[in-house]
Automatic annotation (TrEMBL):
Protein's UniProt name: TMEM175 family protein
Presence of keyword ATP-binding: no
UniProt-annotated location(s): Membrane
Entry membrane topology: Multi-pass membrane protein
Keyword Hydrolase attributed: no
Keywords assigned: Ion channel, Ion transport, Membrane, Potassium, Potassium channel, Potassium transport, Transmembrane, Transmembrane helix, Transport
A Pfam short name: TMEM175
Family of this protein: Belongs to the TMEM175 family.
InterPro entries from the UniProt entry: TMEM175-like
Transmembrane segments: 30-51, 57-75, 142-163, 184-204, 210-228
Native source species: Hyphobacterium marinum
Principal location: membrane
Catalysed conversion reaction: K(+)(in) = K(+)(out)
Amino acid sequence: MDTEQKNRRSLRGERYFRWRGRDVTRLENLSDIVFALSLTLIVASAVPATFRELASLWREAIAIAFSFALILLIWSKHHAFFRRYDLEDGLTVLINSTILFLIMIFAYPLKFMATFLVNFFTGYFQTPGQIESTLSLADVPYMLAVYAAGYALVFGLFALLYAHALRRSDVLELSEAERIMTRLEVDQGLAAIGVSVAAILLGFLLPVGWSTMAGGVYFVIGPIMGWLSSRARKRANAAHAPEGGTVS
């Protein structure tokens, strides 16, 4: 790989992909507006009326950070897809529109759950009654099902987007390394669905009081995604390397 190719790869932040999307399209403009609006809904809150309320805003700041991180993860996957493939056919528009709709729908529930968890683990609730009035144990499986379903739907739809790109690989002239990394995105979306289904089942199958532990299944997401990514990158390196060499 010559110096010019390495510089282009560095500027675009991609090792295995040739970016086909150069200009920001109207579809991406609309998508960015929806992402920005969703972040606004998450950040928006009532103005503190007392210093005590102002001093407690650090909890809300942590909740906003968690929500922002998830929205940013979704946005980065969205951005990468359109830079990599530059697809704007009917199916892409339909799946993309559904993703944007889900993001809008889940903005407030995401903020609610993040705020509840931060308040719970930082000792904001002084009595069990305060916790019960916010989220009862009987409601936990249903709340977990809502979030798991949202997580599975969003990342499952991204899997559909990447599967669509994979089906168009000949038209897009994807290299073997690009096909491997595209298939990785599909596999990671399917893994997200599998973990979410497991969380929903555990939430309803575990006894009341233990159902809160079902959310812990999401801790396996990191190792699963890391393993899938490591396996795919090894294959992509082999496909991307010059014959008899390796990719630096």
